[in-house]
Please model this.
Amino acid sequence: MIVVSSCLLGMPCRYDGSGFRRPDIIEILEGRDVLPLCPEQLGGLPTPRTPCEIVNGVVMGKDGIERTGYFRRGAVLALEAISKFDVTVALLKEKSPSCGSSLIYDGSFSGRVTKGRGIFASALVDMGVTVFSEESLKGLISFLI
Model:
């Protein structure tokens, strides 16, 4: 089973209420068991919602309100959901404070990124799940072969 960020399948769950329907991703996942998840929604955040970025390990909204608890709760609930399945790999949305697998926004709300992982991506890695982003599809394809 492959865990996939719901937004990458076109589900309108991003902070701005949009999703990314990526035909290339749909094609790669065709015929495979997929579990779409949005940890931010699972954690209780609405859609649309205030953009959030990680600042010194704390998730802050652009409005200055800390939202770390929502992100941690979402990661915990997502991990509970996947514990019922044999999940070995995840395809997550890069740069997200939940799902960023190698890059996250730097906390300045300026569009700059830095090396790092989102809260859910970190939890998956700690569990031994191999995590890819939509920016590393070649690696995912090689993993799945």
About this structure: The chain has a mean pLDDT of 97. The chain has one domain: 2-49+69-94+117-144.
